[in-house]
Each structure stands twice: as C-alpha cells, then as structure tokens.
C-alpha cells in the first residue's frame, strides 16, 4: 500500500521502517539563502504568497531563479556536506516548454567537481514535485548541490528548489545475509532503493503490446520484487482528446478497476500463480498521480480506501517520475520464468523497469545487491500472496476505492436547488434534464459570475480563468476533480474572449477595469523593450502591441520563431475586441471612449503595421492557432511567406477588431485623434 501520502515530499519518511534511518534538513530557505552561495544574478528567495504562477513550496519561501527574471542566469550552490544514501528536494521550473533546452539542471558534485547525479526541472508551472538522488555508492564523501540556470530565454527558463533533506538509511546488509539479486541487471545500471529493496534498472521497460514478455529465472525463490506497475500509456481518466464526448474507444481510458494485463509466475512443478494487473490494486499512474492526488489527498475515506486496495509502494526517481514496487512470495519453490501478459482491451502495456529476487541459489548471471534492512512491516501487510489473489479477495477493497473516486447515477440526488450568486447580472436561464440540468444551470451562473468577479482583480489584472477554477479541458488525473487553472498563472491575451460576453451581460465596470490594466501594458515594446527593427537604415522600436502574455511580454526572441516579438496577433485582436464590447455596454459613451482613444488607435495601427512589415495580405502570427509556425525555416529566403504562420482564426479576429475600431472611430472625432487606414475597413 501507499500509506498516508498527502503529497510527494512526505515520502521522505516512508522509505523504510528501519530504526537506523535518519533524516536531516539541509535547507528550507525560510530565512533566505543562508550559507548557500550564488553566481550570476538569477537566484534569490521568493515568497509563496502573491507568486504570479501560484507556486507552492513547503513553507513560506523557496529558492528561485525567477527571482531575477527569466532572462537572468546563474548558479545556486549549497555548502559542502557528507553524502548520504539519498538526497531529496522539491523542485519546480522549466528548461524550455518541452524540457529540451539542456541548460537548466539540479546537480550533485563531489568536492573535486565530479558529477554524480543530475536532474532537469520537472516541467511544471506551479506545482513543486519531489526529486531524489540515490547515491549510496558515494556515501560519506564531501559533496555539494548546484542549481544551474543557463537559459537566458524570455519564457520557460527558470527553476526553483525547496526543502532539501538528507536521508541516511543505516549500514548496508551483506549480500550473503540478504540473498537479494537483480535479474538482467548490470554493474553499471542505475540503482533504486526503497524499503530495503534494491534494483539494478533495466535500460527501459520491455514493450509487448497485445502479446507477452518472458523473463527466465530457473532458481528457487523466496520472494519476487517488481519495479514499475505503470502503463506505457499512463493517461489516467479520460483526458480532453479522448473524452467520452469525443470517442467511444475505451482502450484509451484507464480507470480504477480496469485490467491492463497479468503476471504469470510459472514453477518447475507445473504450477503457476496468476496476478491480475488492475488499476487500483496492482497498477497505478505516474504523471496523472503526480499532477493531482484528489480526492485521495484531501478526503480521509478515499485515502483509507486507497491504502486498503493498492498493494504497491511508491518510488520517486531522480527526475521526479514515479515507479511502484510489488512483493510476491514464492515460498522457496523453483521458478522457471516470469511472464508479463498484456491485455488488448487497453492501450499501451504494463511497464516494468526492474526485477529483484530473494534466493539462496541464484541462477548464473544474477547480480548480487547490497541493500539496507527490509521494511518487514510493509512487506507483511502488502505481499501479493495467494490468499490475496485467489477467490478475488481483493475485489471488495477495489470496489470501495472505485466508489470513492467516481460516482454512478445511483449516487446522484434527484435534484439540486438553483443557486444564483449575489450580484449576478447576466441572462437568467434554467436548463432541463433532471439533476444534470440542475448542475449545469448552477455551473453557468457561478462560472459567469466568478469570471467577472474573480478573474478580473481589483487592480484590473486579468486571469484567463479564475484562480483555483477546475480546468476540465486539461483534465488528466484519476479523481473526480482537479483544482488547476492554466489561465490563472499569467494573463494570456488569447484567453480574453470570454470578457466580451461579460460586458454584454452587465459587468461593464469589471471589464473596464481590465481594459485599463491591459492598456497600461500596451506600451512595453516602444518604451521599455531593447529590441529594434530596421527601416530606411534606422533602428526603430517596435510599435505598441500586446504580446502572448499582457503582464509578461517576451523581451527576446525564441529560437525557431521570426523576429517580430511577442507576436500572437490572435490575442492582440481579442484584447481589442474586449474594448468594443465594453463600449457598447456603456451605451456608446463618448467620454468613456475619449479617455481610451490613444490605446485604441495604437492597437489598431499595430495590425496595419504587421501587414506592411511582412508584405502579406493576411496577418502573420506565432501562436497555438498556427502550431507556433511548425516547420518554419528562419533562414528561408522569404521568411514571411510560409504557410504555418497563417490561419483563419487570427485573420477573422483581426478583421473584426479593425472593423470594431473603425466603428468607434466613426462615432466622433474623439480627443482630437485621427483614425488611420484601419478606419476604412
């Protein structure tokens, strides 16, 4: 079982029940960087409260290279300490969007500089995840940690660290006393240790989709230990691309109770033990579990059901990814082979990264493993013995876990009373369809109202979605809800579309507050950005425009994109259209428009500038709408004459935004400003 897991970092207390284990806190950064030293100008400590990305460390502060800005670089170096068995810390950050930058690292070095462990940031914008290095082979040597930020990019280019702990597991057990051997492992293989069980990792999990994979043993075995128990698909509940609304292909959905395959242990006497690989019993998830542990994290009954049903133990690798360990007793019988069997009912196949055995007579080629004391308490409570597997004895606990995670129609009440938040000013409506219609009706009222009252802060800052709003479009977890909003971390201009409706529904004051805030961000490129473009032999600042994120426009160029900075013109157009809706909501108030004419005009002029600069008749864009211009060759002879940078979405928005701006310009000669050629649209 995975006992009492509230969050990843708590696993530091669960490695083993052996009394010899000690845990030492090296740093928590609550009082600053302390005796950690820095190079460069990137690192400092950041507070949890008020963090724009809603990053959550363990305490109130964490060490952070975003402290100096994403374009800053540097190294944060720990004081020297004696190497323990395991170094554990929580980490947060990026090394480019897809992790391919190769410039941001967490490193562990010996005094002479020898690199003994290294991990990249865990690709997460808000969550800290646990990372660990198993370094028993260097135990007792002087070492230090380096947190390295070498990425000077304007986005996805920082990393953070918190709660650094050192774990000593006590003395190693001699091989002859433990009889623990790795199967198909090598002396050079990376080692993983948990609860006294060691593994010499295979190069990767065997892939055997819709077939089998055999591992020869031919030796007496007291107990088998397998490391893995994941699926190569590793999706969890139905994610957005494979949701029930879009597909009935249940092979691409992994739910509690689904069978992914089975393990067959074949003995020399002809007998065999068959262990089903079932999610919630002998299978679990990596990324969906790291991303969100609800409701198991928060609901005691769900946590109890999880502990009773899941007979696996969690292992955190040095890159923050997860594996799970099972223990299968064989009572000293001779095992000829272990057969991994895949089910064709599910995508992917069960994945395993290592096999270790307790045996007094190892077969040729087996690798003896030193390790620490077994956690016998865990083993005694969680062995996959015949009594657990036979007669489906695991099913009651599995059904209980399934009921805690999900619901059936029978669990639903007959109806839900209507709940309209105070201050709601939008259209009233009621959806029919029983209790589900009731739920959707209330969801409509609260979503609209929270979008106006929570998405737009008092200072006008616009979230693309209210903070802590469940983002079902991004759902990829195992529970019934996921409190995460991709839009809450920054102000993405492409997420402003909903604000046009809010103005039409009576939230004019709130939207006006947001417009004034975005207008304050419009002038970054002509006034603050160091980038220039060349015209008639002169270096000129880029005209005013909104970038991908209004609050955090990129100050440099991303490799593979063109030179126009921050060029998501679909987001720029949506921001323009927000003004028009609010103006209509004021009853076409001339004074309201006059006070905002200068940014209105500058925003419209930008779209005309882009057409002129590129020499094209359609708007150039680098956004998700164009797949970021996939396949763009920046050395091409005609850099703006490439299909991937043009899409209907951006150009329709741009056309509508210019027409709306022209409509506002035609009302009156506002503020003495003349309208540009966009007024002729």
Keywords, separated by commas or semicolons:
single chain; alpha+beta; globular; 26 strands; six-stranded antiparallel beta sheet; 681 residues
Tell me what the structure shows.
With 681 residues, the chain is an alpha+beta fold. Helix content is 21%, strand content 23%. It has 14 helices and 26 strands. The strands form six sheets. Strands 1, 3, 4, 7, 10 and 12 form a six-stranded antiparallel sheet that branches. Strands 2, 5, 6, 8, 9 and 11 form a six-stranded antiparallel sheet that branches. A hairpin with a 2-residue loop joins strand 25 and strand 26. Helix 8 packs antiparallel against helix 9, helix 8 packs parallel to helix 11 and helix 9 packs across helix 11. The longest helix has 20 residues. It starts with 21 loop residues before the first strand and ends in a 14-residue tail after the last helix. The N terminus is likely disordered.
Helical amount: 10-25%
Structural class: alpha+beta
Uncertain segments of ≥5 residues (pLDDT<50)?
1-19
Tally of individual helices:
14
Q: What percentage of the residues does DSSP assign to strands (E)?
A: 15-25%
- Looking at the structure, what is the overall shape? globular
Short structural summary:
With 681 residues, the chain is an alpha+beta fold. The chain is built from 14 helices and 26 strands. The protein has helices at residues 175-178, 287-291, 300-309, 376-382, 386-389, 395-405, 434-453, 497-504, 508-520, 524-527, 569-585, 590-594, 597-614, 648-667; strands at residues 22-27, 37-40, 44-47, 61-64, 74-77, 81-82, 86-93, 104-110, 115-119, 124-134, 142-149, 159-168, 180-182, 191-194, 197-200, 212-220, 223-231, 259-267, 272-278, 313-316, 322-329, 334-342, 350-358, 367-368, 532-535, 538-541.
């Amino acid at each position: 079982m995975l006992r009492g897991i509230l969050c990843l970092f708590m696993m530091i207390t669960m490695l083993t029940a052996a009394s010899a284990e000690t845990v030492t806190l090296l740093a928590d950064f609550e009082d600053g960087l302390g005796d950690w030293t820095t190079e460069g100008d990137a690192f400092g400590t950041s507070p949890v409260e008020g963090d724009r990305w809603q990053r959550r460390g363990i305490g109130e502060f964490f060490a952070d290279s975003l402290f100096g800005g994403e374009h800053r670089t540097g190294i944060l170096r720990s004081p020297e300490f004696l190497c323990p068995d395991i170094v554990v810390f929580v980490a947060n950050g990026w090394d480019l969007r897809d992790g391919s930058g190769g410039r941001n690292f967490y490193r562990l070095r010996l005094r002479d500089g020898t690199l003994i462990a290294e991990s990249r940031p865990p690709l997460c914008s808000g969550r800290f995840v646990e990372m660990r290095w198993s370094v028993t082979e260097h135990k007792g040597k002087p070492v230090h940690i380096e947190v390295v930020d070498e990425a000077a990019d304007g986005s996805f280019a920082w990393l953070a660290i918190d709660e650094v702990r050192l774990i000593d597991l006590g003395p190693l057990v001699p091989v002859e006393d433990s009889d623990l051997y790795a199967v198909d492992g090598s002396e050079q293989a990376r080692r993983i240790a948990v609860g006294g069980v060691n593994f010499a990792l295979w190069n990767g999990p065997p892939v055997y989709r819709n077939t089998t994979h055999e591992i020869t043993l031919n030796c007496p075995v007291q107990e088998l230990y397998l490391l893995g128990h994941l699926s190569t698909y590793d999706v969890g509940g139905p994610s957005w691309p494979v949701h029930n609304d879009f597909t009935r292909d249940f092979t691409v959905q992994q739910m509690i109770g689904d069978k992914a395959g089975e393990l067959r242990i074949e003995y020399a006497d002809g007998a065999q033990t068959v262990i089903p690989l079932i999610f919630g019993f002998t299978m679990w998830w990596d990324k969906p579990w790291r991303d969100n542990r609800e409701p198991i994290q928060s609901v005691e009954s769900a946590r109890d059901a999880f502990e009773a049903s899941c007979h696996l133990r969690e292992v955190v690798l040095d890159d923050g990814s997860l594996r799970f360990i099972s223990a299968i007793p064989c009572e000293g019988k001779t095992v000829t082979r272990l057969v991994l069997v895949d089910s064709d009912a599910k995508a992917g196949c069960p994945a395993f990264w290592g096999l270790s055995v307790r045996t007094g007579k190892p077969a040729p080629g087996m690798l003896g493993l030193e390790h620490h004391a077994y956690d016998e308490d865990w083993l005694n409570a969680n062995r996959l013995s015949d009594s657990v597997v036979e007669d489906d004895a695991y099913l009651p606990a599995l059904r209980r876990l399934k009921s805690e995670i999900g619901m059936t129609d029978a669990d639903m009440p007959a109806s839900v009373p209507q709940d309209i938040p105070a201050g709601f000013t939008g259209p009233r409506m009621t959806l029919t369809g029983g209790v589900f219609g009731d739920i959707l009706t209330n969801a409509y009222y609260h979503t609209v109202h929270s979008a106006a009252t929570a998405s737009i802060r008092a200072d006008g800052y616009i979230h693309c979605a209210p903070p802590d709003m469940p983002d079902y479009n991004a759902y990829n977890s195992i529970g019934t809800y996921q409190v995460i909003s991709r839009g809450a971390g920054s102000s993405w201009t492409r997420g402003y579309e909903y604000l046009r409706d809010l103005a039409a529904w009576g939230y004019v004051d709130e939207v006006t507050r947001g417009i004034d805030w975005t207008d304050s961000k419009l002038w970054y490129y002509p006034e603050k950005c160091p980038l220039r473009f060349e015209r008639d032999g002169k270096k000129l600042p880029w005209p005013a425009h909104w970038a991908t994120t209004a609050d955090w426009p990129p100050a440099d160029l991303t490799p593979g994109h063109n030179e126009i900075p921050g060029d998501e013109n679909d987001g720029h157009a949506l921001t323009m259209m927000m003004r028009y809706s609010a103006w209509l909501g004021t009853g076409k108030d001339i004074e309201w428009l006059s006070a905002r004419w200068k940014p209105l005009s500058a925003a419209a002029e930008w779209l005309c500038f882009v057409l002129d600069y590129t020499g094209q008749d359609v708007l150039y864009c680098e956004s998700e709408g164009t797949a970021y211009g996939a396949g763009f060759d920046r050395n091409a002879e005609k850099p703006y004459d490439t299909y991937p940078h043009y899409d209907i979405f951006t150009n329709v928005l741009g056309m509508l935004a210019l027409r709306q701006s022209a409509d506002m310009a035609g009302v009156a000669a506002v503020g003495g400003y003349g309208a540009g050629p966009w007024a002729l649209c």
